[in-house]
């Protein structure tokens, strides 16, 4: 049905054809938050530009772990539709957080440290991949990799039980996903993709209602977009599967 | 315009800015550690900032010890979600129980200004009924004070902050606000539309601690939406910008990066000072005639428990065994709705419209007390993490829903969870980087709480649907923290008296959210600051008596209108009752 080399690329739902690689996916063509950098205050500009230009080296994860973690991150937050120049590095920033022991201010009582949780989780993922496909995770096709991760999302990994006894699988899943999205959506390329205006001090916003763009923002231009056919991550199902009703308390402050 | 006319914006040359215009000019007073100051304040946050300012203005010698930094907002704060990580209390805490609380960015500040640096800024008052929930509903506990006793302090702080909001706020004790309401953003429009279609009254443009007009050297809001990342503009109030500068100008000292590890007790049963780890990692001591702990609902109990000593084996001021108990968070379920049209909810303050129509007990609902409904405006990282739970999004599903970020709006429940003895702060086996045992927080929802959350969550979803959302999802979460050192008249069931003085030790006080016996469905920031001003008036009215051994005044002191920061005089809060 789909060509192998396009496995893992979004498609035009009308034609089924894979969409071309883009510098900037999303519905806001031509919108670049970085083009507004001179309008930002200096402290913000320093922080955001450092994030874009200074990619921290991998020091916490071993080379094998880093390779596996990269493959995992590529499925938690797939970037197969981005051209090489515009892919957002993920693992390096998670590695930096763990190495610097930058915590979120708490740890669930049944969880090990964040560092240990990430190491254990990678072992667990490797074991599930072996169990399901008899291959290392990194050698699997994108869709098979998703199938492996889906078992964690559903709270029912078929292997690695000693690991999940030490660490509830749903808590690990949420830690992993929140770390990955925390890196991806901190990047200006991701802001351009979702149409977020980015830093706005000292200039501020003035068009607050009806979704109107600022003079320097652009309007939405939608096009037909669908996830890769057969992708398990394209279906929205509860974390922990239907058996676990209890949603975990969220992270970011919103009140 | 591609570039600013005069080139890229640069950092101001002045070396300590608070907001875009305010500067700290005065050289800060420095007390010697061996000098016995009148008051040592542990934690310069919402309550500590107000206390420090009041006591200094009244002529006392005051040192504030703050675990985090004394922010220069131009240098330290950024208009960026991930870059604002340092504003929160990110040190290790253990969280558990049946319904464990997320801490850190969700509810815990660090640095001068404390939680008021990263609050969204909603400033509703508690309702008169909140002070007697046990009498009225047979749940929780009554406060040792009435609404009438705190009302003048609500009015005073609403002027000092100053609060923007409608001229007529209809719930609880109806009143108005000194500054006009803010314009609406996308989420406010959604709340108005949903509520209006259902016949629910809604307050728009406030009450929020965000300036709708300029105030002295603080400019008005620029609607950039980064309130909870710290307001670089200086429009949103924090005690860092509203009270601390005036405190310093009147001789107070703030020692930042100083983590208090222990309160020291003298042979006469009075506290004599504190031990702390300073910015160089060295242990030091500060002597004081009285100590006020303002560490908020987790660090305050932690410090009291960590200060256990002979005669106080269970922790200081803990003869009742209630230190750390009756911890509360509010239910904060976020309801997200996708709309056909664009919303762009990152613009405008997250906090700008609310309804308290469901605040009071309604026997028909089958549970005691109630909830409020408020706007929130998650930025992309927060929104993605909410979608991770609300829709179970990851992989291509996450990419897809995030590409529609601008089509989503968010409003939230703010529901009253009752005080329960088993919701508590204890000491964990783990220690922090200074070797101090960290807090272990246990949280369980009880039957009344679960019923309230179920009803409230469905009501908020109904409002979202009535606003025209084509898809509505929700994420369970909690907001705010109070309790843990509650006030009461009975020394067997509470930690402090009605003025914040510990029952056990005459010169040890607690003043912060932890003294609240119940929490209502109002964001606690205004109440915490009002309680601090009231405690300050009490201490000032007692003068030296408050600093000595045994005498304990019990009369409500006269309110001191002359101790407000500059710019308060001449403003008014409309009264309707």
How would you describe what is shown here?
The complex is a heterodimer of chains A (255) and B (577). Chain A has one domain (4-199, 215-234). Chain A has 8 helices and 1 strand; from the N terminus they run αααβααααα. Chain A has helices at residues 42-53, 63-76, 91-99, 114-133, 142-153, 161-166, 169-184, 188-194, and one strand at residues 107-108. The model of chain A has no long low-confidence stretch (mean pLDDT 92). In chain B, strands 3, 4, 7, 8, 9, 10 and 20 form a 7-stranded mixed beta sheet that branches. In chain B, helix 4 packs across helix 12. The interface between A and B is large, with 89 and 110 residues. Strand 1 of chain A pairs parallel with strand 5 (94-96) of chain B.
Helix and strand composition category of chain A: mainly alpha
Q: Tally the beta strands of chain A.
A: 1
Shape call of chain B: globular
Q: What count of domains describes the coordinates of chain A?
A: 1
The level-1 CATH class of chain B: Alpha Beta
| Alpha plus pi helix count of chain A | 8
Overall pLDDT of chain B, averaged?
95
Keywords:
heterodimer; A: 255 residues; mainly alpha; 8 helices; 1% strand; B: 577 residues; alpha/beta; FAD/NAD(P)-binding domain; seven-stranded mixed β-sheet; six-stranded antiparallel β-sheet; 12 helices; 17% strand; globular
